[in-house]
Write a structure and sequence with these properties.
The radius of gyration is 35 Å and the shape is rod-shaped. The chain is mostly helical. Helix 1 runs antiparallel to helix 2 (19-29). The protein has two domains: 1-33, no CATH class; 38-82. The longest helix is centred in the middle third of the chain and has 48 residues, at 35-82. It is built from three helices and no strands. The N and C termini lie far apart (87 Å).
C-alpha cells in the first residue's frame, strides 16, 4: 500500500489531483488513517498467537489422556470377556 500510494503521489506537485484526494493519499501513505486500527489488529494477532500456542502445547497431553483412557477401557473389556458368562436358557449350568 505504501509503494502504491507513493507512486501515485509522485505527481502531487503537478496539481493532477484535487486537494481532498491529495490529502487522502498523503494520509494513506503515512499510515495516519490506519494507525487507529493497528492496535486492535495487533491485539487480535497476539490473542491468536496465544491460542494456537496453547493448542500446540496441550495437544501431547490430550493425546496421552486419550491413550490412557483407551487402555483402561480395553482392560475392562478384556476382563469382562474373560469372566464366565451366566448360563442362558437351554444351557446346562454347571
Amino acid at each position: 500500500m505504501v509503494s502504491t500510494t507513493g507512486l501515485v503521489l509522485l505527481g502531487r506537485k503537478d496539481n493532477i489531483y484535487v486537494p481532498e484526494t491529495k490529502r487522502l493519499l498523503v494520509r494513506l501513505h503515512t499510515w495516519e488513517i490506519l494507525a487507529k486500527y493497528s492496535g486492535s489488529i495487533m491485539a487480535i494477532g497476539l490473542m491468536t498467537m496465544v491460542g494456537t500456542g496453547l493448542v500446540l502445547a496441550l495437544r501431547p497431553e490430550l493425546k496421552k489422556m486419550r491413550y490412557r483412557r483407551e487402555i483402561k477401557f480395553a482392560k475392562q473389556r478384556k476382563v469382562l470377556k474373560e469372566m464366565p458368562q451366566p448360563a442362558t436358557e437351554g444351557q446346562n449350568a454347571t
